[in-house]
Amino acid sequence: MVSAVLKSPSESAPKRSFRQQMHLAREDAIVSAVNRLLAEKGFESMTVDEVAAEVGIAKASLYKHFPSKEDLAAAAMVRVMQRAQAFLDGLDTKRAPLDLLREVARWTMEVQLAGEMPSLPSENSSLRAALTTNKAYVDGLMDVSDRLGAWITAAQASGGLNAALPPIAVLYTLYARACDPVLGFLKGSGQYSNEQIIEMVLSTCFDGLKAR
Amino acid sequence: MVSAVLKSPSESAPKRSFRQQMHLAREDAIVSAVNRLLAEKGFESMTVDEVAAEVGIAKASLYKHFPSKEDLAAAAMVRVMQRAQAFLDGLDTKRAPLDLLREVARWTMEVQLAGEMPSLPSENSSLRAALTTNKAYVDGLMDVSDRLGAWITAAQASGGLNAALPPIAVLYTLYARACDPVLGFLKGSGQYSNEQIIEMVLSTCFDGLKAR
DNA sequence: GTCTATAAATAGATAGAC
DNA sequence: GTCTATCTATTTATAGAC
Fold first, then answer.
1. Is the pLDDT of residue B1 over 60?
2. pLDDT for position A139
3. Measured between CB atoms, which of B122, B189, B205 is closest to A209?
4. Beta bridge partners of residue A161, listed in sequence order
5. Nucleotide with the nearest C1' to A49 CA
6. Could you tell me the CATH number of the domain that includes residue A65?
7. Structurally, how many domains does chain B consist of?
């Protein structure tokens, strides 16, 4: 059999690995394009034709990699979640919990300003349903939530964070920074740099609008 | 001329007024349906067929009232803006500016929780373009922004509001409360009443996450 | 102005050759 | 796996009778 010959260790193993790498590289390019388009226009406005055009392949080829538009978008959401987990891994957990939470909020805003934060689907979106049944996404979200939750309760116990707020309210408030329209508004005003915008929103988020 | 006869004061004036009232009532029903659907699923996911079904008239009839889907949605946005202006009109301007701003934020959240706040269009939406050329909307937005802006600078001058924040950042932060996903998140958790949700988000907005 | 019926355009998804 | 070409369903918008 030809396939048996090709699978001989001396030549097929590297060759199959090479093909797998190409395959993964292609899929990564697809997911990157989807991620950018999701950030730019959202799930509903993004078309599969646009994705194919951006990647530079035929639309039918996309469907060899991902069975539907929802799976395409879910792959991008999973990758963002993995990026978040990698960012958390890189944090020095010996720092004060409040500082860690601030760094997380800063990171989500940097990603958003870089045009790489997919806008989360509205509650009735078909993407929402696809995500709730996506184990990689749900597991990643739970992992991130657990880690942030621990820092939140620690920061509340040490008096840095307002202990009157339910931890889940704090968690959601931080998540919301990833899709805060204020960043786009301020960017659109053309008066501030990305750094200034992030500092302002961090200030309103942690210190509030009122004078201290 | 027939038209001259029909315009005689004795019979045509009341009849035309009646028809106009019916016309306005119908259009109000249309705009209400559009408003609700925009709040529920956003501009892209809302279909004109749904609107027609919700109003209970044929789709072609809709297009006799509004020339396009964008105009349909713009009418709903204009009406929300008018509701906002009416709310501002009803406020007691002798109160402290900071309290007035808090009342405005509260109102936007109440409207959102009532399912009557159209989610604002993403930056690339065709609705965005339609809104920027809609005089009623742009004028309303400028009026609201001017009034809030005056209260913001007054609150900063009196020391109630953080004077280090540019007024435009404060304004955008307040606007963002109208589409804050945190409300939906907390609502979805099923643990809190609408009043509790609003109080929590008002607290994070004005007092910040950090302990005071 | 309201309706039914249909046009025209677009989007998600697939067939089948290579 | 990639391509071209096509299918099927949906969606915005209109035609034309009443």
1. no
2. 98
3. B205
4. B210
5. C11
6. 1.10.357.10
7. 1
